[in-house]
Amino acid sequence: MYQLLKPLLFQMAPERAHHLTVKGLSATLATPGVSSAFRATYRLEDPALERTVFGLPFPNPVGLAAGFDKDGKYYHPMASLGFGFLELGTVTPRPQAGNPQPRLFRLPQDRALINRMGFNNEGVEALAQRLLSKGRPGKTILGGNIGKNKTTPNEQAVGDYVWCFERLFTLVDYFVVNVSSPNTPNLRALQDKEPLTALLSTLQELNVKLARPTAAVMGQLGDPGELWGEKPILLKIAPDLTDGQLDDILSIVKDTGIAGIIATNTTIAREPLTTDAGKVSAIGNGGLSGAPVRERSTEVIRYLYENSGGTLDIIGVGGIDSPGAALEKLEAGAKLIQVYSGMVYAGPGLIRDIKQEILKRGV
């Protein structure tokens, strides 16, 4: 179905096409009988796909990357496509409009996207209220990707991350600290060793403080069905880091005790691209995602995995548009993977196809 609609969608502005697609999916799944048909088509469940990572029970290792559902409006329909986990956000303390449109661009020749969205979202309170009202999507794991507002100076950034962490603590299963988007001015400076260590240490201390009373209260209520206690904190990093900076990341993970890494975010590089250089230049700034990021993302995963002695838990993302690309990430050391841009080109059947290949190969 998606492949039939794809030519029409690709005639629309990318951001408009995205909203129409997810709204259409939501409406379709609300039609009696259609939801079960969707599940039969796209879902693939097998005990061999289950993974326990960061202490969490993932139904399967294929997740939806942050950015697709920033405000938690569509996570139930997306769960119906067979994802094992969904990452919501990036969300900031206060609502913000993001950068002016157009801010999302397709490069079909490269199976890639360029975006400079700028953390457009309705704010953490809006996300929290949706999670409270809509409830959990079955066994699908939920992650919360958190960032800072554009107007918050880096010197005060910790407060923004704390604000989001506290508000979402009882509503998501894990957190992702996003300091690697290229679309918020100076955000990537927070990847430097000193400010990043301070930020992650503060969140880890808060993690312990929030977990103790929550666990005690839930014990009194006698609800063993929920996952309580400290929440895994992950760090999402850029693919543009040098080996020396990656060594710093490994040191920070060890010193702060965070649960793992998401590798990688979008890149500011423009190589290798086959799209006309003039067209790319006219698009301007933004993060490049999709097939051109595939090789570098895998290199970063392999470097971190090997230089941690195989002990680091990694979610691999970047250029996964086929089962082969997914297996490449897993074989490099990732425990889980995420898709976004690849699904724009391959369609939602990509999730099922990846899971089939994982079962076939026994990865």
UniProtKB/TrEMBL annotation:
GO biological process terms on file: 'de novo' pyrimidine nucleobase biosynthetic process; 'de novo' UMP biosynthetic process
Residues annotated as binding substrate: 70, 115-119, 178, 183, 265-266
InterPro entries named in the record: Aldolase_TIM, DHO_dehydrogenase, Dihydroorotate_DH_2, Dihydroorotate_DH_cat, Dihydroorotate_DH_CS
Compartments in which it is found: Cell membrane; Membrane
Documented EC number(s): 1.3.5.2
Cofactor: FMN
Keyword Membrane annotated: yes
Enzyme class: oxidoreductase
Molecular functions per Gene Ontology: dihydroorotate dehydrogenase (quinone) activity
Gene3D superfamilies: Aldolase class I (3.20.20.70)
Active site: 181
GO cellular component entries: cytoplasm; plasma membrane
One Pfam family here: DHO_dh
Chief location: membrane
Membrane topology: Peripheral membrane protein
Catalysed reactions listed for this entry: (S)-dihydroorotate + a quinone = orotate + a quinol
SUPFAM superfamilies: FMN-linked oxidoreductases
Keywords attached to this entry: Cell membrane, Flavoprotein, FMN, Membrane, Oxidoreductase, Pyrimidine biosynthesis
Record's cofactor remark: Binds 1 FMN per subunit.
PROSITE patterns listed in its UniProt record: DHODEHASE_1, DHODEHASE_2
Assembly mode: Monomer.
Family stated for the protein in its record: Belongs to the dihydroorotate dehydrogenase family. Type 2 subfamily.
Name assigned to this protein: Dihydroorotate dehydrogenase (quinone)
